[in-house]
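Figure 3 (text version): structure tokens given as input.
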């Protein structure tokens, strides 16, 4: 009689185990059935089952066996086992065999209502602690990985990436620390690195591997917003491993190439923020920007022109990456042309936020600093056109920061191009922003981590020098410094006229204090010159000639020069509206405050969507002044027909205005308006209760 086929034999044995576990009450039979299931997972030489039988069990019966155990988690036979037997026979089945099937069954069991939920949670915790995630990823990296459908793979990816969310939704405050995002995603990154290390070793041994599943896992983690936690662990390790190992470099390149297109942007965005420098980025992604159009768009356009939330170091890494390879340098020139056009665009200067303009200015200066002399000669005409047109647009702006930005960039471009030996030079107050822009013309070389040994050497040398010279300090006599006085940078005035000039016009607190200290001595020393003090008093006297008629004649005369307030003189318009807002604020509690507020709102309403941000700021300041100067009762009575429309406009500005100051002023105005309306409603309710 022929022996049954392996699949039939395994199916019958598994069915017999299920019947025993369902019907038997003998503890020995229960243990024997569980040991039979374990025998199909034993890989050692002492295994009682054959290789085809074990393969058939893993393929067709392992998931069903785990689901049977989870469904019978409250059975009496399970509670009849000792703790050691339960850990070895029941829990051990989940920690052996195909890890992807075990993880899916565990997550399915945690998601369903169960009275023994803690047991499944503890097994899942052990699953993560024993490196089963690395086994799962490695099983997909092997050439003969588990065969599955796209739907099953997508489900598995979802369970791996969203495990903290799934457990938090089920366990609520009783969630395990290992399941929290702060611990789980660094663990997942470590397991991916382990799978990549095994892949490198397998490739060195001549075995083919696939990185598709690991790349999909990385992409899905990053697209769900966890790129910072994952790449903070992976990027430093990949940077070190790719320094001297070409196999690691090829593995990293293949990993990035296999990331799905819809997730590639999030991976690259997180990677440029996690690496230490452009050299590390080049080793990890290689020439991906030349092979993948999506990667090229993200690196050369989106991260430079459309998004501006990143630090200057990110710009250095991106542009340095493009400049460090001969094949990528044409992209650097392309980026320079695009960025220079964006910087010189008059419409962009008027309508884009200042932060974005500063970001583009940094990108422009960094790109120019990375050019070679031959490339600079090729782009000379484009840069000259950019400098002239862009400087005019920036200098015409009413915002001081934008004007300073144009001056600094113009100086740097003219210095780099060295036009006829002449360089532009502007007078402006240097602050942190302008100093940072000027420093960008000196490109940094290498990655940050390479500077650590130098710092250690300098510290060691200085320490050794101190030790060598330490013996001479004891022979020196300490100098008596008890009578030293602090030397002031400003000297006190020696003449009464200088003292008066300082007290009247100076804004330096140190000079004013010194003048006050010596004023009495100067007056007593020269009584004749002290008459000038009396002459100054006439400006403070209330007895003076009334020159109001003269001023009125000047104001009422026909103006000789007019301002184009709705055209090129937007700075004057903004200051005018701001001044009217100040006058409105000074009229607080005045009888005519309500009439002034109505007139001011009517005046500024036509320019509330002005293109210039200084005008919009003035309008918002005027609206704030109206809400501050008029009490809540008069605000509802006198301006009730305008409040609803004004509130809608303020909400629109607070949500969508490109200028941050305008958004902040709009929010403050909304808060003031809501406070006034709430106070008036409370007062009316209190009056109603009293009556």
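Below: residues designed for each position.
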């Amino acid at each position: 009689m022929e022996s049954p086929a392996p699949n039939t034999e395994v199916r019958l044995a598994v069915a017999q185990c299920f019947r025993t576990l369902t019907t038997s009450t003998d503890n020995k039979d229960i243990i024997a059935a569980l040991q039979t299931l374990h025998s199909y997972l034993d890989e050692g030489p002492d295994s009682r089952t054959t290789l085809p039988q074990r393969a058939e069990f893993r393929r067709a019966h392992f998931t069903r066996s785990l689901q049977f155990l989870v469904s019978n988690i409250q059975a009496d036979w399970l509670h009849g086992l000792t703790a050691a037997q339960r850990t070895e026979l029941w829990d051990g089945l989940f920690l052996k065999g195909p890890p992807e099937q075990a993880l899916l069954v565990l997550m399915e069991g945690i998601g369903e209502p169960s009275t023994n939920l803690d047991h499944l949670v503890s097994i899942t915790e052990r699953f993560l602690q024993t490196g089963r995630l690395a086994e799962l990823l490695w099983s997909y990296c092997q050439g003969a990985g588990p065969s599955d459908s796209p739907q099953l793979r997508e489900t598995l990816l979802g369970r791996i990436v969203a495990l903290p969310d799934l457990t938090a939704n089920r366990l609520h405050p009783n969630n395990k620390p290992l399941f929290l995002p702060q611990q789980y995603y660094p663990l997942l990154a470590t397991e991916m690195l382990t799978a990549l290390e095994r892949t490198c070793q397998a490739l060195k041994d001549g075995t083919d591997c696939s990185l598709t599943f690991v790349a999909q896992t990385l992409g899905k983690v990053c697209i769900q917003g966890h790129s910072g936690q994952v790449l903070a662990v992976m990027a430093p390790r990949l940077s070190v491993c790719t320094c001297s190992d070409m196999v690691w470099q090829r593995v990293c390149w293949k990993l990035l190439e296999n990331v799905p297109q819809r997730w590639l942007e999030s991976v690259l965005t997180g990677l440029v923020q996690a690496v230490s420098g452009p050299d590390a980025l080049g080793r990890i992604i290689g020439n991906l920007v030349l092979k993948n159009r999506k990667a090229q768009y993200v690196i050369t356009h989106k991260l430079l022109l459309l998004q501006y939330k990143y630090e200057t170091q990110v710009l250095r890494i991106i542009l340095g990456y493009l400049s460090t390879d001969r094949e990528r340098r044409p992209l650097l020139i392309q980026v320079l042309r695009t960025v220079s056009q964006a910087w010189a665009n008059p419409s962009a200067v008027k309508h884009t936020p200042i932060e974005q303009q500063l970001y583009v200015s940094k990108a422009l200066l960094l790109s120019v600093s990375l050019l070679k002399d031959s490339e600079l000669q090729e782009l000379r005409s484009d840069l000259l056109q950019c400098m002239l047109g862009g400087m005019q647009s920036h200098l015409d702006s009413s915002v001081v920061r934008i004007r300073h930005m144009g001056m600094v960039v113009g100086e740097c471009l003219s210095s780099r191009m060295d036009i006829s030996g002449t360089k532009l030079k502007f007078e402006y107050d240097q602050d942190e922003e302008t100093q940072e822009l000027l420093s960008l013309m000196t490109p940094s070389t290498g990655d940050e981590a390479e500077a650590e040994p130098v710092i250690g050497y300098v510290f060691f040398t200085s320490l050794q020098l101190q030790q060598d010279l330490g013996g001479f300090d004891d022979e020196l006599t300490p100098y008596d410094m008890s009578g030293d006085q602090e030397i002031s940078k400003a000297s006190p005035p020696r003449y009464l006229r200088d003292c008066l000039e300082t007290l009247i016009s100076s804004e330096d607190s140190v000079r004013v204090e010194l003048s006050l200290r010596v004023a009495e001595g100067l007056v007593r020393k020269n009584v004749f010159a002290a008459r000038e003090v009396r002459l100054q008093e006439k400006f403070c006297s209330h007895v003076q000639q009334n020159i109001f008629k003269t001023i009125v004649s000047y104001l009422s005369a026909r103006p000789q020069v007019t301002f184009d307030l709705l055209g090129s003189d937007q700075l004057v318009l903004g200051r005018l509206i701001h001044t009217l807002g100040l006058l409105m604020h000074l009229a607080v509690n005045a009888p005519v405050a309500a009439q002034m507020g109505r007139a001011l709102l009517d005046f500024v309403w036509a320019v509330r969507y002005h293109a210039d941000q200084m005008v919009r700021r003035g309008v918002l300041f005027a609206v704030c002044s109206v809400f501050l100067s008029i009490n809540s009762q008069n605000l509802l009575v006198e301006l009730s027909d305008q409040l609803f429309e004004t509130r809608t406009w303020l909400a629109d500005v607070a949500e969508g205005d490109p200028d941050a100051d305008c958004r902040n002023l709009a929010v403050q105005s909304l808060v003031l308006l809501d406070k006034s309306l709430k106070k008036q409603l409370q007062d009316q309710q209190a009056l109603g209760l009293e009556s």
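Residues 470 and 476 are 11 Å apart (CA to CA).
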